[in-house]
Write a structure and sequence with these properties.
By secondary structure, the protein is mainly α. The protein has one domain (2-193). Helices cover 74% and strands 0% of the residues. It has helices at residues 2-26, 32-38, 41-44, 54-74, 84-103, 112-134, 142-162, 170-193. Helix 1 (2-26) runs antiparallel to helix 8 (170-193), helix 4 packs antiparallel against helix 5 and helix 5 packs antiparallel against helix 6. It is globular and about 50 Å long.
């Protein structure tokens, strides 16, 4: 039962995130295509005229962070045979980072540093977490292999983004590095719900 509860939390968090971003992007002050290609996810959460549904995007950040922290400490921890302490730390860093992104908006010179810190905690910490999780369970089966591939894709996308911050296509790499975490959250939710 504990596995199902943790799994449902992750499934709800990941689906809510995808829907919230899609709806927020639909109402963003640009075409849907341009929003996904040329505007960062954080821009959807800035409370201004460009993003009338900023609150929806920010609620998605917060929900994903809470779901990750809850599921990691409530049940997912029971599946690891090593690296438990590092996984706890990275789960907390990732979850808190996503929550910070939802609570502290980008675009404000006074708070953008905190927002950036939260984003790095979430994206870099989260994708490192995926790689570590894939190597910390008893068997290296399909779930672990998919987790490893997602973590590597996320890390590569993060580093491309990091060294191309000024690129007009930077938001594409940002989304690639974030979506690996959302996909993993959904798959982990299914993994836990079936246990």
């Amino acid at each position: 039962m504990k596995s199902k509860v943790a799994g449902i939390a992750l499934i709800i968090g990941s689906i809510y995130y995808v829907l919230a971003e899609a709806i927020s992007a639909t109402f963003f002050n640009d075409s849907l295509f341009n929003t996904y290609i040329f505007h960062t996810i954080s821009e959807l959460g800035i409370p201004n005229g460009n993003s009338p549904l900023f609150w929806l995007m920010n609620s998605a950040f917060i929900l994903v962070g809470l779901a990750l922290i809850f599921s990691s400490f409530y049940r997912f921890k029971d599946f690891f045979i090593k690296n438990n302490v590092f996984i706890y730390i990275l789960s907390a860093i990732t979850g808190l980072g996503v929550i910070i992104v939802g609570l502290i908006h980008g675009g404000n010179p006074l708070t953008s540093g905190y927002h950036t810190l939260g984003a790095v905690m979430a994206i870099l910490g989260g994708n490192i977490l995926l790689v570590l999780v894939s190597r910390s369970m008893g068997e290296f089966l399909n779930y672990q292999k998919i987790t490893l591939v997602l973590g590597v894709i996320g890390l590569v996308a993060f580093w491309i983004m990091f060294f191309n911050i000024q690129s007009v296509y930077m938001p594409v790499f940002e989304r690639l590095s974030v979506y690996t975490l959302i996909i993993w959250s959904f798959l982990t939710g299914l993994f836990l719900a079936k246990k």
